[in-house]
Description:
The structure is a single chain. The chain is α+β, with helices and mostly antiparallel strands. The chain has four domains: 2-96; 101-202, 2-Layer Sandwich (Beta-Lactamase); 215-324, Sandwich (Jelly Rolls); 333-401, Winged helix-like DNA-binding domain superfamily/Winged helix DNA-binding domain (Arc Repressor Mutant, subunit A). It contains twelve helices and 16 strands. It has helices spanning 2-41, 48-96, 116-122, 126-129, 140-143, 146-156, 215-219, 297-302, 304-328, 333-348, 364-371, 375-387, and strands at 101-105, 111-114, 160-166, 174-184, 190-199, 225-228, 239-245, 248-253, 259-265, 270-271, 282-285, 289-296, 349-352, 355-358, 391-393, 399-401. It has a five-stranded antiparallel beta sheet with strand order 2-1-5-4-3. α1 packs antiparallel against α2 (48-96) and α11 (364-371) packs across α12 (375-387). The longest helix has 49 residues, at 48-96. The radius of gyration is 35 Å and the shape is elongated. The termini are far apart.
Amino acid sequence: MGEYLQAKMSAGTFDMDLKQFIQQLDALQRRLEQLYHCVNTSNGKSHLLPSAFKELGMASEELQVAMEELLAQAEESAAMQVKLAAERQRYQHLFQFLPHAYLETDTNGKIIEANQAAANLLNVSQRFLVGKPLDIFFPKSDRRKFPAKLVQIQQRNLKQEWLAQIQPRQSEPLEAVLTVSPHCDLDNQPISLYWMVQDIRDRQPMLREGNYDNNTNLFQNRHRYIYYKGETISLKPQTIWLVYQGVIKLSTISESGDEIIVGLIRESMPFSSSMTSLPMYEATVLSEAAELISISQTEIAASAQLFQVLLPQLNQRLQQTEFLLSIAGKRQITNRLNCFLSWLKEKFGQPTPEGTRLTIRLTHQDFANVCCTTRVTITRLFSQLQQQGKIAFDAQRHLVLRD
């Protein structure tokens, strides 16, 4: 209501100033007419004065017309300003009563505005939320990743969503879905970020027997999380990820600091930090995009049928891990590479007139990590295979294996 009255008062003040100015112009014009009349009836010898007064009178009339048009425009502008203030007030009320937690932050993650649902979720009064950095509501282990996440959001300039752990003030941590969308200026540069935080318990389907006959039922009625190429997926101990679409690279770090690929996860295959004993374990999107669903271990424990559906996928993971280990055991580097290429052809191959095209793109360093060699060696071996006509690259730089 304050903004509405302020807009009304400022519009009224502006209107009053214009009317006063027009009245002064009227008085000026009348004075010019009197002077003009006096000059015409006097015995003055100057023939220039009547012409000058006449031109001044015409200018005064034109100025008055212009001011009247300006006054009409000002009245329209004032009416629009009042209307906009009323609309802003209405949307502010809607924002406050939305059922989910909504926040706006600057590009550095400092909270600019938050609705009542956000205050309730984070257990902090609304007026104390403003000015606080959003990452203080993340566990300490996740705060160091937040600045890089902000940079990634602004670089992509797209709505993104990920699973994260939220730490409300003086309360137990909770799993939440964070949806963030950049707010951009006319040059399409992010100036703030809009956030929706939703407790994942609100999005979990009802647990019941007989709901997991096959993979189709498994993916139904579950929210899909979208990640993009190069993004790191948050791994939580009590959550199992299942790939709906795309390819995920699982890796660890050796004692010498080199990356070791321990899995290439495709559709319907699960992964989780609880499925490994490796101290360092990372999941990175390898395809252009990936869609995932999450399943809690509590849900799996409550449904024997769900476990039966997941068992074949778990078996695939075990077979894949053993195969990647067997590659590292081959003595000749060329044998390791040929073995890996054959496996990729079987699992990720797409027949084309030119040969079998791999649907995923691995870097030379990725091949080197799997084959336990250097990137320079892989580049040399690829060059030899290309000269022999055994491999080629298409326009999108996807590897094509020729029979």
